[in-house]
Amino acid sequence: MGFDSYHYRYESGREGDMAAAGFSPRSRELTVYLADGVETYRDELARLGRHRTGKACLYIRRLADVDLEVLRDVLGRSYANVTAQDGRMGRAT
Fold first, then answer.
1. What does the alpha-carbon distance between residue 44 and residue 73 come to, in Å, rounded to a whole number?
2. Residue 63 pLDDT > 80
């Protein structure tokens, strides 16, 4: 499930539209999509609690295992970053 959208454009010329914030409740874990990548939030994720990551995905088995304030902060910042970029991938400046 995705919320809102943003337009991205890579230096290669590839471009498209993507959800600005998204998640997928799967049978084993909740997947949270961070369009600007999990590396941007390394310090916050160290305080999050039990989780694992991919390049742009955060995997949480149970919400009770994580600090919801940290999760809220990460999601809010990620959303703000990608919607403020005007089509550029990466951190907003």
1. 8
2. yes
